[in-house]
Amino acid sequence: MNKRCNHCLSEDYQPFRDYKPLDFGVSLVQCNNCGHVFSLIQESIDYDEFYSQGKYVLQDNRGSFFDKIIGLNNSLIVKKIRTETDGGRLLDFGSGKGQFLSLFDSAFWDLTGVETSIPRARFASEHYGLNIYSEFYESGVIGEGRYNVITLFHVLEHLTEPKALLKKLITGNLKAGGLVVLEVPLIESWQSQIAKDRWMHLDPPIHFSHYSKMIIDDLLLGLAITPIRYSYFSLPLGMLGMCQALMSRLGYKGLLIEDLKFNRTFRLLGALLLTLPFAVFLESLAVIFKKGGIIRVYGRYNH
């Protein structure tokens, strides 16, 4: 069981709002020192086994509707990165199956990924020809280092010591003036407030941290990274997260992403279609008020 805050390491915390205990013996608490929300995990978990089942099972869904949605979302991020830098060396930390890196033109970019899931690392190498490191990162230089851009999409919430690891990654690998892109679920989002302990992105027991904008800003400040742009919009995670939030208020107990993969029924698809218009409206409004399901930050490293 972890007994201290994942952000400031304080052991002074209290239950987070009126959230019920989650699956796998997980309770949500909020640090009284810095305000960070994190998970207390009281059961012994075999994480290697956990990451090999359920929604984390590797699927080759290239060409599917969901893959096209992810691709469209990624292309918007790629476009923004291109406006902030003229190419160079890019490191995607937590690169998954390689869909994001595959969108960059290798004539202008030297691309590297880090993915500790061997099946996903192999998929990225075999299907997209990407250079992927699969060793667990502890410190130091990855590959040749000196990257112009480092991206981390939905990585920090999975780490027990995200602040320390991010500092080692940035200081050891990013050029001065380089670009950092971080994306994590937003605990203060509308969909989180609607679903409460049924929020999709709480994801017990593998999400240890639940970030607010305040904590993200504090994290970047400590790393000498100046934010240049925030985004709260995600096509797949924002809309699906809001769909599950609304469905959970109507009695749905499942995990939407996992059920869409393995338990797709006419009843589920019907409920999703009925919910989707309301989810699109609410999530779009939430993005305008900076309460979307995720927060994505683009920042400059002022080393």
What order do the SSEs take from the amino end to the carboxyl end, as H and E?
EEEHHEEHEEHEHEHEHHHE
Instruction: Indicate the CATH class.
Output: Alpha Beta
CATH architectural group: 3-Layer(aba) Sandwich
Q: Using DSSP, what is the number of strands?
A: 11
- What is the CATH fold-level name? Rossmann fold
What's the helical proportion of residues?
Answer: 25-40%
**Tally of domains:** 1
Sequence-ordered SSE layout with sheet pairings:
Layout lengths: L12 E3 L10 E6 L5 E5 L5 H4 L14 H20 L3 E6 L15 E6 L3 H11 L2 E3 L13 E7 L8 H12 E12 L4 H6 L13 E2 L2 H10 L2 E7 L3 H15 L6 H7 L3 H23 L5 E8 L2
Parallel strand pairs: 4-5, 4-7, 5-6, 7-8
Antiparallel strand pairs: 1-2, 2-3, 3-9, 8-11, 10-11
Helix pairs in contact: 7-9
Task: Provide structural commentary.
This protein has 303 residues and is an alpha/beta fold. It has one domain: 3-Layer(aba) Sandwich (Rossmann fold). It is 36% helix and 21% strand. The chain has nine helices and eleven strands. The strands form two sheets. It has a seven-stranded mixed beta sheet with strand order 6-5-4-7-8-11-10. Helix 7 (235-249) packs across helix 9 (266-288). The mean pLDDT is 92.
